[in-house]
Amino acid sequence: MFSPVLILLCLQGVLAAYLGERGVAFVDPTTNGGSLLDNAGDGFGEPLNVIISGLSSPDVLTDDGIINFARAIGFSKECLGIHLGAPQSANLGDGNGFVNQTIELREDFGNALLGTCLESLIGGNHFRVYRQNGTLADTGALFLAVSKEEDIEEQHTIVPDGYDIGRDLLAANAVNDGSTTSFGGVTYYTTAENITGLLPAGAAGYVEFNIAIDGIVTLLTVMIVV
Ligand SMILES: *[C@@H]1O[C@H](CO)[C@@H](O)[C@H](O)[C@H]1NC(C)=O
Ligand SMILES: *[C@@H]1O[C@H](CO)[C@@H](O)[C@H](O)[C@H]1NC(C)=O
Ligand SMILES: *[C@@H]1O[C@H](CO)[C@@H](O)[C@H](O)[C@H]1NC(C)=O
User: Which of 22, 38, 66, 133 to mutate to test the pocket of ligand 2 (most atoms within 8 A of CB)?
Assistant: First the structure.
């Protein structure tokens, strides 16, 4: 009655339905009315200038996974859980509409516990994470708004060119000159690719703090090395 082939086909169907659009790097948010700028709540937005590819190892794309990867490249969860800024939201064109950031991570300056407090005081790199997982584009890709900030005296504004600088620093830490990175017993091998045409270049006038950007989005593919 139940041939092995039939069972296999059923399993495949269930798996395909479960995985949705998994198996692609990401879907351009603008194809379904989304944007590569998030909503900072003041009429401006921050560029989603780094994408962690949906083709990365699945464990990297979970909340715990991205936190561990962030630690491997020098970031921690926010200083003792203190949020210094309001959450921002983004529409990734996946059918979920505007969704608040999943998580915000700050550079830890080599000390996973106190480092982020230091970052809050002296400024540093930070990023917000949004997940593309709505039914219209269920890629699992993570879209990051990365920036380099002034210190707390400057009210956490972004340094001039802070979006491009933040993106390049994060990508350089992740790629690590072609070497692996690791934290908590997990080792990562990351490759980067620059994509133009997703974000406009320039963009003064609607990018937060009127900071011009070069329009490059860096796509990172993060593989766990076993
Ligand atoms: C984001 O979070 C804020 C504060 O918790 C809340 O007021 C707002 O409604 C949320 N926005 C979205 C789009 O969920
Ligand atoms: C999609 O991602 C959001 C944000 O990380 C999460 O809260 C939600 O549970 C996810 N939805 C599904 C269907 O996995
Ligand atoms: C991406 O562009 C930035 C800025 O021009 C550059 O520094 C970086 O090396 C580029 N990365 C790749 C992988 O091409």
Answer: 133
